[in-house]
Amino acid sequence: MSDALPRVVTLRERAGDREGAENLARQLADDGNPEGMSRLGRLREEAGDRKGAENLYRQAAERDSSSALNFLAILREQTGDPKDAENFARLAADLGSPDTLYRLGRLRERAGNRKGTENLYRQVAGRGHARDMPPGNSAFDAWWPDGLDPDGQPIPPWQ
What is the pTM of this model? Predict the structure, then answer.
């Protein structure tokens, strides 16, 4: 199956052709394509079928799909399972996608979970992605006004 099909799924979605997007995503998923499984899962989630979405995300995750792991992490966080959410986010980060750790941190920050937020932000920084966190709009700046070095250690104030 063509590498262009996932892009066509996106184009169909943007054009408002949900049925066409879902048919193409299903074709990809049926062929074992993890991106197709993730996209079909997202479409199912948007339609309110969380169980079907999670099943598709898990199938894609078994094929090392970082986007599926990202979706699983957010889904688990939304359903009140922060431990599972963090495990999925860590697995995604291991595959080179640390942004879910950051997104979970933002969700926990909004929920007032300072300890959970700091833990997740330190994991992002510890993976060498501290520079990727947006400045000025999170507790990250309040905790570490001078930032973190790539190893996740606070940078002392400049004198």
Answer: 0.74
